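I can't quite decide. Please look over this sequence plus structure tokens:

:::
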Amino acid sequence: MNNTPLSPRPALRTPHTERRVVTARTLREQGVSAATAGERCRPGGPWQMPLPGVYLLHPGPPTSEERLQAVLLYASRERFPVRAGAACTASAAVPAAGDGPEAMITGLAALALYGLSCAPPLLSLEHIDVLVPRTRRLRSTGCARVVRTRSLPRPQEITGLPVAPVERALADAIGFLGDAAAVRGLLMEAVREGHCEAPAVVRELSRARLLNRPHVVDAVDAVLAESRAVAEGLLYGLVRSHGLPEPCWNVDLWLPGGPHLGGVDAYWPEQALAVELDTSASHGTAPGDGAVWSRYARKREALERLGISVLHITPAKLRDHPWQQAAVIRTALMAAPEREPAACVVVLPR
């Protein structure tokens, strides 16, 4: 093997050298011509070109990290050298410092990076999904599968790589999955293990127009039911572990001989205090969205007009800040004697 230096310049010294994955532009800047790079990528040569404009500086199979890095470099705007004297166009421009990433890993590869056991190992994936703005002129090729979006979400950084949020990665993965068991497994694990909230997943699936697929709808129903059960368990545990008075659990409130006021997850009759878990989500909407939040607001206003205080608590707050939520409930209970007496309501099991 010929070990003669490719150029009189020093060996490549770039952030990508450690990964041994570089772009054609980086090679050009280091004095390596396209012809030399092509010669080294011939069969049996020391280099390879897994994706257009991206070089792997060793002959063996790429590692998982190298595949991810190659896909991100392929989706970047600086793969190819800028011709001398050429105007810098929008498609070739490099983002200014401080701008967000121009591409990020999504789909099953992202879920594997988040550690979901239901996601296949990275090396077993035929395609690695990369999320880019829909205006990018980029095509899927090799192991890089391009997924387009109107606007890029704020990524998470995992092992130094930009990765789409879990709920977005789930939607992008499910878009290519027809296996009902696989879809259900991914959704259940992501919500059960606290990687994301069920309503956020429903929002992303709705945006991706996936809620018209029966196997996706069935999986969402199961996830929402489990999400509520988990949240209720957290609320039970919070009340008992923090020594709060025992409420009436899962009840409907009615005016005597009058209309139904709505259901609540916990109700303290003597203090006229209700707690409602923000876990409900219909297909296409989620708590915080217009239609659902309007229903919450109308019910809350009706109860508060009768002198009943209502606390809305999310599963994330119960899981991440239980002491804070216990303090909020305790404070509301202690403040009850200072409020005007509440109207009489009928409390029935829900």
